[in-house]
Amino acid sequence: MSKKKSWYFLAAVVGALVVAMVSFAVPNPTSAVAGEENGYYGKKAKYVFYFIGDGMAMPQINSTEIFKGTLSSSDPMYKEKLNFTVFPHQGMQTTHSTSSFITDSAAAGTALASGHKTANDVLGVDPANKIKYKSMAEMAKEKGMKVGIVSSVSLDHATPAVFYAHEASRNNFYEIALSMSDSGFDYFAGGGLLAPTGKKKDRPDALEIAKQKGYKVVNNQNEIMNLSRNDGKVIAIQPGLANEEAMQYEIDRTHQLSLADFTKKGIELLDNPNGFFMMVEGGKVDWACHANDAATTIRDVMAFDNAIAEALKFYAKHPNETLIVVTGDHETGGMSVGFSGTKYETFYNKINKQTMSFEELDKKIKAYRGIVGENSANLQDWLPILAKDFGLTELTAYDQQRLADALAQSMLDAKKRTKDEKSYLLYGGYEPFSMTVTHILNQKAGIGWTTYAHTGVAIPVFAQGTGGEMFQGYYDNTDIAKKMMSIMGVKFQ
User: Fold this and answer.
1) Using an 8 Å Cβ cutoff, are 432 and 406 in contact?
2) What H or E segment, with its residue span, contains residue 156?
3) Which residues contact 300 (CB under 8 A, 6 or more apart)?
């Protein structure tokens, strides 16, 4: 090579290196790679939806797609996608807290809302309860956006609470309830409050205090549906709540408002020129998984997906200004698509025959116990109910023995029941007969469970809209909050 050509070659190499270095050093004007940093440099999102399926991971999502496919097609291998599983940007998040690889909802929610890790049971503060972590919802409110918090469980439960409260314990329900009205958020909706007058029921009513601070509190279905922007700040509570001040399980819901109804109403009330932030929690997915009730779990994932459909309708009108993020806070139950008794096969059509949640079955058991007493229970009394409401018509001798043993335990007062390790592994502290019925049905469908608590597996993340590409990759749950803050144009603190 001549000396002149050598210089040209050297100049070309150096030039290429300089271009590469500049490209690496200067951020892309529209986005950044999720795995490298959380900074977003494009147009900020004006409307932000944050959907959190409590206890929802890939087993719950995959099971729901299989179940929906079973209902809509004769093809045994057809899976029907959910609204959010077709989002263009998908990633995975780790969920551990500072105290355990298996997080609870308070620690996971704190990470998802504020971008900070904390210990299990701790809500919106550091493990020592010295530093309050500001949530993205609080930041959005300070920015001038309207803010909505919607949940199918009580509004003072861990996941909704991390967006507006800061407590050393998630069980400080009265203090959390007071924080709702202190937040100044514009729309709270779904469940009620667990301790509106304190643990001893001797404190001023938190809902009355909210009214004094300018909130309109409604728990009548017609009043909720007729709410308008002229009503100002609102707390809308589902009338006729189920256990623990929560909305009904979707499988049990009849005429009551759905999670989608509360989401749709929230969009209507929050829409304004300054934009809004709305968090919607499918909280009872978690509760159904704790109880190892697959049919109830799947129906609540479907209800959660219907709520996301309302956000997508809004997105269609504002595609260049809206971000929708969907994820879970942790997995619950150790749910699996697969059970040793069915080997490589699944039969999800079997759980379509279940017509009630485990909670409704619990009520039937309680009524039966009141009629027959401790020693007169007969499994034969229950076979027509199991056939009609759970589709259990082919019970083996082993199935019937399990049911008979569980029924005998369910007839006892809770204080008299066996409390050894075997009993916990069989029933997990739930109503023994209900637990055995759903376990047998799930197993026949090819669905397994490993725990009555949470697990430490990674959780999928789905995103669509402004900044959605930021959520591709594998990252920590705290990164989700940081990415969303950056896309919203608020600063992580």
Assistant:
1) yes
2) none
3) 152, 249, 250, 251, 282, 284, 285, 288
What's the CA gap between 244 and 124, in Å, rounded?
22
10 CB neighbour count, 10 Å cutoff = 10
CB atoms under 10 Å from CB of 40, counted, come to 27
The Cα 492–Cα 201 span in angstroms is 38
* Cα-Cα-Cα-Cα dihedral sign, residues 480, 482, 486, 491: positive
- At a CB cut-off of 8 Å and minimum separation 6, what does 492 contact? 38, 115, 481, 482, 485, 486
Alpha-carbon span 411 to 369, nearest angstrom = 6
pLDDT at 482 over 60: yes
Identify the residue whose tokens are 């009548």. 220
Letter for the amino acid at 314? F
Lowest mean pLDDT among 257-261, 376-380, 466-470: 376-380
pLDDT at position 375: 82
- 8 Å CB contact between 282 and 326: no
Among residues 276, 6, 305, 315, the alpha carbon closest in space to that of 148 is found at 276
Q: Which residues pair with 91 in a beta bridge?
A: 461, 473
Q: pTM higher than 0.85 for the full model?
A: yes
Number of Cβ atoms within 10 Å of the Cβ of 292: 27
Q: In which element (H, E) is residue 23 found? A: helix 3-25
The span from the CA of 134 to the CA of 125, in Å, is: 9
pLDDT for the residue numbered 411: 96
Residue 292 pairs in a beta bridge with none
CA-CA distances (angstroms) from residue 96 to 63, 74, 133, 326?
24, 41, 18, 19
